[in-house]
Amino acid sequence: MAKYHKALQCFFCDLIDCTGAVALALQKQLESNKTALVIDTRWAGAVWNSQNGLGAPLMRTARVVRDKLGGRDFVPATI
Questions:
Q1: pTM value > 0.90
Q2: What is the 3-state secondary structure (H, E, C) of 10-66?
């Protein structure tokens, strides 16, 4: 089983950015577009799901990726 897990890890490392450059770019985009995301009430940003437009659902997703899934940290410094 450990051999399978190691092979799976290497497979995904080839598919995703393991350097963190993509996470950093995403973090910067979320920070620079914060105002637009907060006023956007389409889809997940609808009032029934969020008081802060698309900003809140994106921050929830970013925290799950970082905290529960152990992924790259792309949570903006200025939430």
A1: no
A2: HHHHHHCCCCCHHHHHHHHHHHHCHHHHHHCCCHHHCCCCCCCCCHHHHHHHHHHHH
Q: How many CA atoms does the CB half-sphere of 1 hold within 13 Å?
A: 0
Closest among 31, 40, 44, 11 to 73, alpha carbons compared: 31
Closest to 79 measured CA to CA, from 64, 63, 67? 63
Per-residue pLDDT, 7 = 44
Locate the domains of the chain by residue range.
19-79
Under 8 Å between Cβ of 21 and 29: no
Residue with the two structure tokens 């985009």: 29
CB atoms within 10 A of CB 55: 22
Please report, in angstroms and rounded to a whole number, the separation of the first and last CA atoms in the chain.
Answer: 40
